[in-house]
Design goal:
two-stranded antiparallel ribbon, single chain, disordered C terminus, 5 strands, hpI Integrase, Chain A, about 45% helix, 12 helices, mainly alpha, about 325 residues, globular
Length: about 325
């Protein structure tokens, strides 16, 4: 506690916990009602949108994965970070990824069939008294499976991991130093060291890929910027479409620039020509009918903030989204 205002997410979370505690007191008969409901004060608005500055491009991602490989004890975790970048797994899903969930053909695309996650909750909050406890996927039922694409690059990394490091006796791909569940502190330290080795001094000081979770943000942003329909991206990422667009709206690069170009083209077209096109369209003339004017067609030149296996744009190696 340093006397500074708490973050909006902290205020919202603690208020929710306190509210539920009072509700429980009402259920037990210790209170006649919940007085918090009558308080007009509102918690600060929580920012849900991903900051585009945390999103890396494909060149930066490859540098970071190579840096992890060069670190002592980093080799066994290259594929761990890769599944978050290429297939948008949450860290808890990556920690509990098992060999039986992999569908890896020798060539082309594969799939990851996700059914469990092991988020870090702390020993005091888990039934098994361990820091991680496998459970169903976030926002999913106990038996539901989420199928995500596995690009050829990731398939190669996963096959190499299985050949070199194998699995735990229960089939998990990734493990801690002593063979137990992979700890957040272990992969967090490795990631910090990889950032310092792979990124420039300015990039290291910036929010760019500061957390391993930001690799998931890069994956989802890559899919969206590559033109994959939002419902498909939401299904792969384990989101609703509403949450997807709300959280990643600022990471969809190039659309504002292209929209302005289209408006400019429309404003440059003479009014009588636009009216003539509108009249032709209302007569139901088929596509391909030539008119006495030709609209200017301008190919989009937007560049995605992130590059990946789906990407059509070309971004500079050190590009940092703004």
């Amino acid at each position: 506690m340093d006397g500074k205002p708490a973050a909006a997410s902290t205020v919202s979370r603690k208020r929710a916990i306190f509210y539920n505690a009072v509700e429980y007191a009402v259920e037990l008969g210790h209170l006649t009602g919940n007085p918090i409901s009558s308080i007009k004060w509102r918690a600060p608005q929580v920012t849900e949108a991903v900051n585009p500055r945390v999103v890396i491009n494909h060149g930066q991602a490859r540098k970071l994965l190579d840096a992890v490989r060069q670190l002592p004890s980093g080799g066994p975790l290259v594929a761990f970070f890769a599944v978050m970048y290429y297939s948008a797994l949450r860290p808890g899903e990556a920690v509990d990824l098992r060999k039986e969930s992999l569908s890896l053909p020798k060539r082309g695309w594969g799939e990851l069939d996700l059914s469990t996650s092991a988020p870090s909750a702390g020993r005091s909050w888990s039934e098994s008294r361990t820091r991680r406890e496998p459970r169903q996927l976030k926002h999913r039922g106990a038996e539901e499976v989420r199928v995500v694409p596995c690009p050829p690059e990731l398939g190669t990394l996963l096959r190499e991991h299985l050949d070199e490091h194998g699995t735990t006796p229960d089939g998990r791909l990734f493990r801690g130093v002593r063979g137990g569940p992979l700890s957040e502190s272990l992969y967090g330290r490795l990631w910090a060291a990889a950032r310092a080795a792979a990124l420039s001094e300015d990039e290291t000081a910036s929010p760019l890929a500061r957390r391993p979770y930001d690799l998931r943000h890069a994956a989802v942003s890559t899919w969206l910027n590559s033109g994959v329909p939002a419902p498909q991206v939401a299904q792969w990422a384990g989101h609703s479409v509403d949450v997807l667009l709300r959280v990643y709206a600022k990471c969809i690069a190039g659309q504002e620039h292209e929209a302005r170009r289209r408006i400019e083209n429309a404003l440059r077209t003479p009014v009588h020509d636009r009216d003539r096109v509108a009249t032709a369209n209302t007569r139901g003339e088929p596509d391909g009918v030539e008119h006495d004017w030709t609209p200017t067609k301008t190919a989009p030149d937007c560049v995605s903030a992130v590059q990946g296996p789906f990407s059509r744009g070309v971004a500079g190696e050190g590009f940092e989204p703004s």
